[in-house]
Amino acid sequence: MRRLFVSLLLCLSIVFCLPVLAADRIGLVLSGGAARGLAHIGVLKALEEQGIRIDAIAGTSMGAIVGGLYAAGYSVAELERLALELDWQQALSDSPPREDIPFRRKQDDRDFLVKQKLSFRDDGSLGLPLGVIQGQNLELLLEGLLVHRSATRNFDLLPIPYRAVATDVVTGEQVVMSSGHLPQAMRASMSIPAVFAPVEVDGRLLVDGGMVNNVPIDVARQMGVDQVIVVDLEMPLKPARDLHTVFDVMNQSITLMMRSNSETQLATLNADDVLIQPSLAGFGSADFDRGAQMIDAGYRATQIQAERLARLQGSRGGSPALALARSSEQRTPVIRAIHVVNDSKVSDMVIRKHIRQPLDEALDLDKLQKDMGTLYGLDYFDRVQYRLEPLDEHGSALVIDARGKRTGTDYLRLGLSLSDDMRGDSAFNIGASYRVNGINELGAEWLTRLQLGDRQELYSEFYQPLDFSSRYFVAPYLFGEAQNVEAILDNDPIAEYRLERYGYGLNLGRQIANSGEIRFGIGQSWGEANVHVGERDLPSFSFSEGYYELKYSFDTFDSLDFPRSGEVIGVMLRKYDRSLGSDEQYRQWQINLDKALSFGSNTWILGGRYGRTLDEAEIVTSAFTLGGAQTLSGFREDALSGQNMALARLIYFRRLTQRSLLLDFPLYLGLSLERGRSWNNDNAFDSGYINAASVFLGLDTPLGPLNFSYGFNEEREKALYLNLGRSF
What we know:
This protein is of the alpha+beta class. The protein is built from 15 helices and 34 strands. A hairpin with a 2-residue loop joins β19 (445-453) and β20. α2 (39-49) packs across α11 (291-304) and α7 packs across α8 (182-189). The protein is elongated and about 105 Å long.
């Protein structure tokens, strides 16, 4: 018995002296691949189902995005829902939703000018961006998704330790980000060169990590893991027959570089590691609309490895799904202070006044995102972002980071309009505008617009906000214009006058949120009306005008070029008064209205315009004009002139092409039905109501909308129209 007791003690001592064997730590490596990176979500889904606990994540590019969100506490279900419901086209662009853009910027598009603009620096040099996309919306998206991790600066303190890999574009060195601002690190890792602008982090310009390490196995091992699960998306090389453009060759070169460093990393795998390579043949880098299929491909590729993954599960003990303590709660921080970091031309107070977040209240994320869009829409910034910095356990500081445009804030835009009535009479107009931004800290602007052709115009306005929130403004202006106006007697044209007018004025106004403005002004002008075509014995004359004017403008179109929702309203009231130097005393008013309605791929625009001249006045100088594409089609531009006019129209168009993410040039087919009238007060001219129609093809190009129209009317007039930079 004594001998048995001694033997038992000896066995127990041996057991307690043995070292405790810790379970192997598992690292997950997620490679880059743009849209193909959505397959990572399917991999994570399968790993969770198989009970695999991940101890560390290292990712590059899209792998850094998916891996960073998962490491920060997002569940697979949340990631899948985000991937399938997100408007990727909006996220991977810079333009805010049009509803968030300041009204003055919306008005810039009202002329037939192309939407792309050339920017110039203060020294007059042309400014070119460092990337086609600045990443404004992507950064805002990541900030919003990771608000609950705003206080985490050490990535080892996330629910899963995390690393993002980027490339220093100056030195070519690999940069492994283990701390800092998490959304910024993720955004830097996927800054595809030339597509996305580099991200400045700690004085270094960072681009996509795939340039140096697309499958960062070594980074994961440096995090102290024993085994790695590697997801390689195998970026495909195009055959020679598919290399058609310089962009194809550039993309192929980048892919070759990524393939080379990927193969170097994959060669370091050992027998205990697991390599997952989803079958993604046929999926492109921009196929975000095929996310469900790519997620499924990642899931199936992981299921194939179930037997090997089972060994990793067995080494853990307990339920891996429960072992990971996720903290994905969306704790809404209370904002105690708001700070502005700003190196642009406008005052910090201009930026601060655009932020509607109240102090000592919970962060209103939706409202903040809209405010960021409005600030970016001012055209002063390369990017406008925010971050939260904890003050104490009771609240955080909201920091608005506004970076001035490196390319400059002065803008040149161009446009073109052509029409031909197929009877030897044609009209053309070319236009340009130049806008000088940031003349002072309140955000004053100087806009000059020039148009040459059948309708000539020179307009120059100095726009001065009167407060930091840009609600009230004063806008003095100068103008000169010249156009042809027909004189008609008994419905027959008897002459064509060349009407020239020059003048100046002053407007006081108020902006109404981002949707409208109201202006009250006074103006004076003078000019001449000379017979251009017709009997030379008809009188030519000079004139002087002085007037009061009230204007109201409202614009909620979601797109000016091919709108699918919203409305546009314009109201003008003008009184010519002898006390202001006017030769004649009379009143005029005009209203324009368009309403867009959409059902599926079909869109209808209902609207028109109506203008009246009250009291007696000289016909040539008080005339409104009609004519042109969708404004009594079949007539050339401004072919009908009268003291009064009315137009009602219905425009229909349908998109013919599928939506694409990055290179989206939608083609539309449409038609219009119109009914209009032009007449004078003396009853010497009344066109009667004229029915007209048109068919058109519209192409939404990077320069702006390109429209080809054929119009005709019951007066047996017909015309061809070409417009670049204007739709309807």
